[in-house]
Amino acid sequence: MNILEIKNLNLAFHSNGRDYQALYDINLALKKGEILAIVGESGCGKTITAMSVLRLLASNAKILSGEILYKGQNLLSLSEVQMQSIRGKEISLVPQDPMTSLNPLYTIGSQILEVIEKHQKIKGEEAKKRAIEVLEQVKIPNAKGRLNSYPHEFSGGMRQRVIIAIAIACKSEIIIADEPTTALDVTVQAQIMELLKEIQKDEGTSFIFISHDFGLVYETADRTAVMYSGHVVENADSYEIFKNPKHPYTRALIKALPDFNTEKLEAIEGYPPSIKDYFSGCPFEIRCPKKMEICKNGFPPSYNFESGAVWCRLYK
Ligand SMILES: Nc1ncnc2c1ncn2[C@@H]1O[C@H](COP(=O)(O)OP(=O)(O)O)[C@@H](O)[C@H]1O
Ligand SMILES: [Mg+2]
Fold it and tell me: Cα(109) to centroid of ligand 1, in Å?
């Protein structure tokens, strides 16, 4: 069962009197209990895809068309008040910088208790017990003693754990983690990935995990969608996409990973485009080692394979 489906999502930003399209026909599906990774270089549209789901877009953003179905209900047609009962409860966000969701003026304990009391309708000692339980679940040492600590007394990795604990406390169905480990060192990154896997297993939570780092997601995610310049260019089972990448951009991303190449590293030449750049064809064409004359003629249609699809004319 798909708990979330993004269907033909098109989004533009209004800037200097003009609309610039930033997302093109995004189609993504998240199954219940699955981890879906969205990968791609900075600026390709990962965050705005996630923010469309939560309806937390900048005021100059305009959804041109599409649907975002959560348990079959189109989130784009809900009122702001209805959205507020979904956000942070049904669907939670773990952002890159945890200080954007933790209030520096309140203790960790009071921030967790607030959501537990609000969403689970338990109070007092019972709520406190639950707060300690979720902090233990995300492996905060001495959870009981840390309830009175302030966010600045925690390391970056520990703050991310607290935000994950809050999402668990709310029994969120979907956790969207937007580069949650980018600011952390490599060992802590691995621990957080491990933790997400455990929560997926124990709680049946579904995740959208956003990263610019293919190496980080391929072992954790069940499925991976690769984005480039506002388009999904490949979408498949993670194992398949990693072992047998099809799109020249996916291949380039994997070739640029330091840990997976004994041969020489190949950085992707050129830069990812801006939403102000205009393309008559495939936006990767100018950087593509496999480009053909036909690639200038519109964005390619999708070509399906067993566990996914690729948007590239090499496969027609
Ligand atoms: N409020 C905005 N106004 C204009 N352009 C924006 C705005 N927010 C994001 N963008 C542009 O949309 C594109 C996608 O952004 P984003 O989703 O943040 O990329 P990613 O998360 O993949 O790095 C980028 O080119 C970015 O500059
Ligand atoms: Mg981003």
Answer: 34
- Among residues 29, 10, 28, 30, the alpha carbon closest in space to that of 20 is found at 10
Domains and CATH numbers, the chain: 2-90+172-315 (3.40.50.300)
Distance, CA 44 to ligand 2 centroid (Å)? 8
Between the alpha carbon of residue 96 and those of residues 101, 128, 231, 275, 296, the distances in Å are 10, 27, 22, 22, 36
DSSP3 helix / strand / coil % (the chain, rounded to 5): 40, 25, 35
The answer to whether the CB of 241 falls within 8 A of the CB of 226 is yes
pTM: 0.94
181-229 confidence digits (pLDDT tens) = 888 888 888 899 999 999 999 999 999 999 988 888 888 999 999 999 9
- Are 51 and 57 a contacting pair, CB within 8 Å? yes
